[in-house]
Amino acid sequence: MPPTSQPFVTVVGIGAEGWSDLPDAHRALVLEATVLVGGRRHLDLVPPRSGQRREVWPSPLREALPAFLASLGDGTIVALASGDPLVSGIGSTLIDVLGASHVRVLPALSSVTLARAELRWAAESCAVVTLVGRDSALVLRELAPGRRIIVLSSDESTPGEVAGLLREAGYGSSAMHVLGDLGSGAFLRRDGVAATWSGESPRLNVLGLELVGPPRGGWVAGLPDEAFDHDGQLTKRDLRASALSRLAPVPGEHLWDVGAGAGSIGIEWMRAHPTCTATAIEANVDRAARVARNAAALGVPGLVVVNGPAPEALAGLPTPDAIFIGGGATRPGVLDACLAALPVGGRIVVHGVTVETERLLGQAHAEHGGELTRIAVEVSAPIGGYTGWTPLRTVTQWAFTRGAV
């Protein structure tokens, strides 16, 4: 491997017109490379060069990448990419695998930039969602009336899949703009609405959405209970908002939702930011399946569902930054296992409605400190021809943040 002051791989972005679009300096780098790496389509754009080794990316990419790069030797390595290699591209993957000091990026115009220019959308006026190799349900997290979204499509099937999701969510009146082969002489634009969308799309396309539909709830904790399919095992709205305010989701952090029920805590954690991740642990097989359905419907299909009882099901899970225990806290070993997994700065919130759980949480508070709260919620309900208050079960909440030892 070369010295850390030098890039290990130079990534060169290529526009839709291919070789003819590249600046002279970038062409020279490509032709002078000892090894040229890229997709077959990219490699076919480059004129033949005697003695140059050319390799197609391995599959599966990320798992095979370290060994693949090590096999290329000590010569100059140039990788080809579409547009801006750091917009859902190979540049980001290489940096993750090799580290920033081993990667240099020479971008072309990104498909996002070209799409915004075609649609005349200011950068600050729209969100960007990538569905490249991802579940199309991710777009559902972004739904809000009047919002603009640029979607990086996985392939020609993405526009139809997104149109179907919009229709099911009540957003069938949303405008759709399919921009195919952006920046090339083969550029194709199709405009329509989700409700009547049909027909073929180019394989290389970017999708612009102008959303029209009902409000579905914000990204602040506390979605309506009706947003979740459940069998009664649901952390209700007011209690959920209280728990999430103490769990305090931060971009890039991971949550364990233990005894997930309908999955509402893990789902709202992931809705807080696109980089938040969560694992929902649920012993009941029907509820575990319901958690996955709720997650997809609310735009976070990446929620990982583990069907099994805690604490056994916690073994081998990614280290959590925060833990919520909504059920099963009194099961032997559950609270101890969760506390043992909690890193410095990690947060845990536990809810209990039984005397036994309340006793356990009182002991935990006495031993570890934190915040012990009883939350009583009353909702209005008819009493004859009048309206009165109906109390819900009082919940004892223990919240604790792990300090430095």
Q: Could you describe the 3D structure shown?
A:
By secondary structure, this protein is of the alpha/beta class. It has three domains: 9-109, Tetrapyrrole methylase, N-terminal domain (Cobalt-precorrin-4 Transmethylase, domain 1, 3-Layer(aba) Sandwich); 112-210, Methyltransferase, Cobalt-precorrin-4 Transmethylase, Domain 2 (2-Layer Sandwich), CATH 3.30.950; 225-401, Vaccinia Virus protein VP39 (Rossmann fold, 3-Layer(aba) Sandwich). It is built from eleven helices and 19 strands. The strands form four sheets. A seven-stranded mixed beta sheet has the order 13-12-11-14-15-19-16, sandwiched between helices. A five-stranded parallel beta sheet has the order 3-2-4-1-5, sandwiched between helices. The chain has a five-stranded mixed beta sheet with strand order 6-7-10-8-9, covered by helices on one side. Helix 8 links the parallel strand 11 (254-258) and strand 12. The model is unreliable at 1-7 (pLDDT under 50).
